[in-house]
Amino acid sequence: LLLAHPNEFAAVILEPVTFEDPKPGFLECVKELAHKHGALLIFDEICTGFRFGLGGAQKLFGVIPDLACFGKAMGNGFPIACVVGRADVMQVFTEIFFSFTFAGEVASMAAALKVLEILESTDALARMDANGRTLQDGVNVLAGEADLGRRLRCVGRPNWSVLRFMENDGSDSSVMKNLFQQECLKRGILIQVTHNISAAHGNLDIQQTLEAYAETIKTIAGWMEEKNPAQFLEGTPSEPVFRVR
Q1: For residue 34, what are the contacts with CB-CB under 8 A and spacing of at least 6?
Q2: What values do phi and psi take at 239, rounded to 5?
Q3: Fewest beta carbons less than 10 Å away: which of 28, 131, 135, 158?
């Protein structure tokens, strides 16, 4: 695309990682390619920022973009986000007019400063990683014990993982996903398909979740042996909000 449209791209923007690590050298090559064609490299670190450590995914993988955006975890629930980048690129902001409704709101800034202080001075990130690893490993062990190891897997990094439900041929199984959500809800666990671990989650939270998962996995393992497991759904199945056309 860059070759087909020379000098038409201002930037290449992407999430550096979601639930599968980029192959070695991939992000480096994207940066090199963007610069070769006069474009900036921008990382969307809304999800990975702070969750993957104070340096985000760019520190984790050793690839520093020209610009990056952060949010969500930055203020621990307070509405705040930021754009950061190379000094020469950020200098452009001194020459343009930009505004937003809550420019004078300082509570979120105070919250962000406190979040940074906590992440820098406590073991919060280490605890998140440890709890996430316990949860992730627990799911995979439980799935294996129920003979669902090839159909239910928890993948991604420990502090931000996703449950993947698959048919025998490896395709996504919406029925299995819906059954899992249904049975977890009965046991007090409200889940989409991701584990967004926070420092507020403790050992008891992880243990209670795994206990609910154990009962759920055992239940749906029996159902998945039936010719029509969808018969066990008690409501209208959920559908993807975003679709690739």
Answers
A1: 2, 9, 11, 12, 40, 41
A2: -130, 155
A3: 28
In percent, how much of the chain has pLDDT > 90?
Answer: 78
Average pLDDT, the chain: 92
Distance spanning both ends of the chain, measured CA to CA? 20
Q: What are the tokens at 121?
A: 């001075």
Q: What is the pLDDT of residues 202-217, one digit of tens each?
A: 999 999 999 999 999 9
83 alpha carbon, distance to own chain's centre: 19
Tokens of 148: 């669902």
For every residue of 187-205, DSSP letters joined together read: TT----SEEE--TT--HHH
Is 102's pLDDT higher than 80? no
Structure tokens at 39: 């474009």
CA distance 16 to 26: 10
Work out the average pLDDT over 23-47. Answer: 96
